[in-house]
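Retro notes (design track)

What went well: tokenization of the new backbones is finally stable.
What didn't: we kept losing track of which sequence belonged to which structure.
Fix going forward: every design gets posted as structure first, then sequence, in one message. First example under the new rule, 79 residues:
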């Protein structure tokens, strides 16, 4: 199935403080960034990142936006 939607590139740094209290606020910043980029409910968002606190914040913000997370782990190889 081929998607006809345009790809929107968004670069976001949620911050790497990692404190539990800061994660919800960082996820809200991601949500705001995605909305400003035109991401809507049901859109797919490719997340290319390692397993860090930033990754978690970006995934949570994407879920809050109602978008679908498409994770891509660049450190995973075929072997």
């Amino acid at each position: 199935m081929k998607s006809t939607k345009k790809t929107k590139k968004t670069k976001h740094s949620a911050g790497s403080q990692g404190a539990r209290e800061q994660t919800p606020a960082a996820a809200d910043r991601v949500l705001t960034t995605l909305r400003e980029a035109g991401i809507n409910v049901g859109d797919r968002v490719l997340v290319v990142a390692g397993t860090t606190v930033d990754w978690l914040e970006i995934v949570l913000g994407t879920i809050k936006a109602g978008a679908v997370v498409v994770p891509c782990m660049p450190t995973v190889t075929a072997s």
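Added context from the reviewer: The longest strand covers residues 44-48.
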